[in-house]
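Notebook, student rotation project (T.W.).
Task set for the rotation: take a protein with a known small-molecule partner, predict the structure of the complex, and write up what can be learned from the model alone. Partner molecule chosen: NAP. Sequence and SMILES entered below by T.W., checked by me.
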Amino acid sequence: MKYAITGSTGHFGLTAVENLVKEVGADNVVALARNEEKAKKLLPAGVEIRPGSYEDADELTASLKGIDRLLFVSSQPGGKVARLDQHRNVITAAQNAGVKFIAYTSFPHADQSDAPLAQDHKETEKIIAATGIDHAFLRNNWYVENEMSVIDAGAQGDAFVYSAAEGRAGWALERFYAEAAAKVVTLDAPKDVYEFAGASHTYADLADAVKAATGKIFTVNSITDAEYHQGLQDSGLDNATADLVTGFQTLIRDGNLDENTSDLPDVLGHALPSFTDSVKEVLAKKAN
Ligand SMILES: NC(=O)c1ccc[n+]([C@@H]2O[C@H](COP(=O)([O-])OP(=O)(O)OC[C@H]3O[C@@H](n4cnc5c(N)ncnc54)[C@H](OP(=O)(O)O)[C@@H]3O)[C@@H](O)[C@H]2O)c1
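Predicted structure of the complex:
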């Protein structure tokens, strides 16, 4: 059985490759990368590297020849080819190459979500389902790493600021989503949908976790979206980026990331670390 992973040079893809190698051995893993030189430097020995630009369906088709199961790591918005078109290329290529199973990294409750960030994922899920290829949608909740700037502010003793009010998210470390993705792609009978998340927490809980992890004392300010947006601009972000980042706060306040599922620890086969230990881990990683 041959397994392939797209986006293998990214944080998620690389961690997933490392986990998949542990599951099935390097001989059975093919890493797709748009930058093969970068891949050669990063990826574990023995993993075959093939070209994998999301922008080139023919190249992807050739690279997916002989692949049974594909871990399709979603691309990012903002490229010169629209993300949904990039995703169509991957799916068309998988179909043309005869791939038998696709695990796709999606967005929480993508099928029902009205959140702007969810729309490419919702469409991608529909396109995958329409191919008739067996699949699993890995609906990853928020990464703890997404909160690095506010975690770091608290760790420095600066104000911890948010506008998501009492909204909750199922934060977990990125490496656990990647470990779970590598597991699902090897399962004999995977579910169609996984809502992968850590325990549900508020930003006030996150501030407490930063205090517990660092022993620092800092102020915690729950402010409005407008104030939050202004603060981002004052710190040098352009208007569009400030809109995007403020949108994450709105998303959480509106309950889009509130989750109550054991899918992630169930697939991993182990519990997740506490919120405080997760915060300690991202701070330690930043320090190295
Ligand atoms: N749930 C969450 O909280 C959350 C947070 C962040 C991201 N995400 C999702 O997870 C995905 C992966 O995140 P990540 O942390 O691994 O991102 P990352 O570290 O920035 O890696 C992105 C990967 O995509 C590759 N890539 C970008 N454009 C490509 C293209 N046109 N063709 C082929 N490969 C391309 C990059 O290749 P190069 O190495 O050549 O640049 C890299 O391998 C994101 O795209 C996003 O959809 C989710």
